[in-house]
Amino acid sequence: MSGISRRKLMTSGLAAAAGVASLAAADRIAKKFGLIPPDHGGLYGPGETLTYAAQRLLTRHTLAREFPRSMISKSPFRNETAPPTKEFLAHQAVGFADWRLTVDGMVAHPLSLSIADLRAMERRSQITEVVCEEGWSYVAEWIGTPLHSVLQEAGVAPEARYVAYFSFQKDWWDSVDMADALHPQTFLTWGMNDGDLPVGFGGPLRLRVPRQLGYKSVKYVTRLTVTDSMKKFGKGLGSASPEGGYAWYAGI
Amino acid sequence: MAQLPGTCAMLRAMATTVAPAATRTPRHAALVRVTHWIAAAAFLALLVTGFEIVISHPRFYWGETGNVNMKPLFTIPIPASRDTVPTGYKYVMPDQNGWSRYLHFEAAWVFVLTGVLYGIWGFGTGHFRKNLLPARADRRWGAIWTRVARYLKRAPPDAGEASAYNVLQRLTYLAVIFVLVPLTILTGLALSPSFNSAVPEIVNGFGGRQSARTLHFFLSWALLFFVVAHVMMVAVSGFRVRMRAMITGRSVASAQENAGERE
To answer: How many degrees, rounded to 5, is the angle at CA B87 between CA B81 and CA B91?
Structure first.
């Protein structure tokens, strides 16, 4: 090896050292500004953290694309969910009149809301696209109560960092950070295309998170928990998805 | 055998001087070699995981939306990893999307950051201008056709080609680096609902989400075609010489030695 290669080797070494140092600095900044996702560990943690941090910085207040009414899909598709339990069928038999959404955790006033209560609150609609991680998509009108309205009524503590949400189906739960929880397009959805939200699409209540892939829009929501850390939930990875191998953050 | 316009995805540099015979001349700069191999590894990861993700829905559409209730533009005749997709096959492949998606985006970051480093270095050092931009005399159809004819006739490479790229190689590398790769990245980003909320112009510019997905698929094939051609050209033009050049940075400039390696 000649002297030139040695010099280049040293330059590369210095560049690598500088890279490591800036990574350490970036780590401190990221922790301070909430740019680290709950599933930041392991082999894929660095990539996941970069994606989440970059998208959070780029998209904190941006709005998902909305479409004209003419673009609503004539035949939307939905993935099958587990067959309804006896308890769910009992709810369905009475038109979900007894369905409750509880709001607890770091809130001043824990709530227990019926679908009718939600309908009596702020009503909003959006025509947005549901995008599945598999690749397919459809556009629909989603009608519901903005999550921020419900959170406002409950009085969220300033230290809150995540809202965890749970499905009627056991083992199906997820969470979003406050940027998505307070986002104007994040709805507790009870209507679709001018009608009630069909059971197949998550009725009676689905949390719509239109800036993330479909699997973040959990169906049959029964409970919201406001928290400052996802460590206490499940395996501490933020949602059921990472426990099944899927990323917590689904903005891409 | 002649050397064709092959190319590596991101990085390659070469000395511009022709050295005297039988000396080992500098061929590729250290940064080019390091970024070349990192990009190659990242591309392989992107390719494998990308194909894996396609298996979950091997149907392609044009426009904004597309799902199994809609008519596809085309389908790939392979079994799917979801039982909801009608493929004609009686069995369903195992779902590997979780780690595939994690790795796809992690590899994309490696590829993009490596590419940014290479791009800054390439502009800063004049690498693109000196080594990839065709010489003024070559920027005409005549020069390009002459080179195409040489390949078709399988004429041996001329003296300058041991240490510098010819016009076809330069145009190919430029097209990959400045057209194919950026378009692949942009069509990939256009599949991110969050990115699309920040920059809707990109996904809308591609004609909608499903169009972007279809274009991403074809661009990936174009990149794969390039990589296969690149590796084939390396193989037929002297595998050991060219691998040595991209690993150690040194090339054997002697025509005889090159010829020896090729035979």
So the answer is: 55
- Interacting residues of A49 by C-beta distance below 8 A, sequence separation 6+: A30, A35, A36, A37, A40
In angstroms, the CA A166 to CA B170 distance is 56
Q: Which residue of A11, A62, A136 is in closest CB contact with B57? A: A136
In the prediction, which pLDDT does B154 show?
A: 87
Query: So what's the pLDDT on residue A139?
Result: 98
State the sign of the Cα–Cα–Cα–Cα dihedral B177, B15, B32, A14.
negative
At residue A150, the 3 state secondary structure works out as helix
Q: Does domain A65-243 have CATH number 3.10.20.740?
A: no
Q: Which residues in B lie closer than 8 A to residue A211 (C-beta atoms)?
A: 193-194, 197
C-alpha span between B74 and B58 (Å, rounded): 9
Global pTM value: 0.88
% of residues, chain A, pLDDT over 70 = 98
Tokens coding B156: 């041996």
Q: Note the pLDDT tens digit of each residue in B203-222.
A: 999 999 999 999 999 999 99
Domains of chain B in start order, with CATH, are 24-262 (1.20.950.20)
Contact (CB<8Å) A73/B54: no
Residues of B within 8 A of A135 (CB-CB) are 53-54, 56-57, 59, 213
**Mutate: best of B112, B185, B187, B194, partner A, most A CBs <10 A:** B194
Strand ranges for A185-233 from DSSP E: 187-192, 195-196, 206-208, 221-227
Please, what's the b/e burial string for B101-121 (b: 16 or more CB within 10 A of its CB; e: otherwise)? bbbbbbbbbbbbebbebbbeb
How far, in Å, CA of A191 to CA of A198, rounded? 8
Query: What size, in residues, is chain A?
Result: 252
Q: Is the pLDDT assigned to residue B44 strictly greater than 70?
A: yes
User: What residues does each domain of chain A span?
Assistant: 65-243
pLDDT number for residue B250: 85
pLDDT on residue A1: 46
Say if strands A101-105 and A221-227 run parallel, antiparallel, or are unpaired. Answer: parallel
For residue A11, give every residue at least 6 positions away whose Cβ sits within 8 Å of its Cβ, in sequence order, or none: B30
A/B interface, count of CB pairs below 8 Å:
137
Residue B111 to residue B9: CA distance in whole angstroms: 10
**ipTM rounded to 2 decimals:** 0.89
Give the pLDDT band (50/70/90) at residue B252. low
